[in-house]
Amino acid sequence: MALSNSDIKVEIREVSLKNKPQAMLDLSKKGEVPVLVVDEKVIDESLDIMLWALKFNDPDGWYSQYTETESKIALQLITQNDEEFKEWLDKYKYADHHPEYNQEYYREKCGEYFLVLETALQNKAYLMGENISLADIAIFPFVRQFAMVNQNWFDHCHYPGIRNWLTSLLDLPLFTRVMAKTPTSDF
Q1: Can you give the pLDDT at residue 187?
Q2: Residue ranges of domains in the chain
Q3: Residue 53 in 3-state DSSP?
């Protein structure tokens, strides 16, 4: 979304993660997506790609609107998402692979981060205020994954701010545009 919103033209190559092309693995030893190659430089972290794109062109102020303090808060929310929430989310999504606890336990652990997000969303439309920000775009795909595990539970959960926030982001034409399926590539 950051690349598209920044109006950066890229060649999208959809890959099968079950059959990763050797050319992709040669570029990024992590063997994970996304991978962006710019002038022979490899950027293979989502946040780094987003920051690169927004430094190039940030027409809606997703990142450039921040003060230094706000930037730290946004990056802290993203770091907490990436380093804590995502681990619990994976266990919640694949609870049968993590039999130490049941799925409800993992959902409750995800809820610890949701309290942070719900608090951030009090009296405002987005995590950092009334406008979409880097934090929103970096975090909402993971909340979307969470919601999809048990949509009925999510639709009735006690996180109304998160539900409204997620719905508003899923309804963005930009989201619809970037989610268009592309054929799998051999690279």
Answers
A1: 65
A2: 2-59, 68-173
A3: helix
Q: Which of 8-12, 55-59, 90-94 has the lowest mean pLDDT?
A: 8-12
* Rounded Cα distance, 156 and 6, in Å: 35
pLDDT number for residue 183: 76
**Domain 2-59: which CATH class?**
alpha beta
Q: What is residue 38's three-state secondary structure? A: strand
- Bond preceding residue 21 cis, omega within 30 of 0: no
CB count within 10 Å of CB 135 equals 25
Residue 89, phi then psi, degrees to nearest 5 = -60, -45
For range 68-83, the mean pLDDT: 96
Confidence class for position 30, pLDDT limits 50, 70, 90? confident
Query: CA 140, CA 132: separation in Å to the nearest integer?
Result: 11
Residue with tokens 């710019």: 38
Q: How far is CA 43 from the centre of its chain?
A: 16
Q: For 62, list phi and psi in degrees, rounded to 5.
A: -60, -30
Helix (H) or strand (E) holding 42: strand 41-43
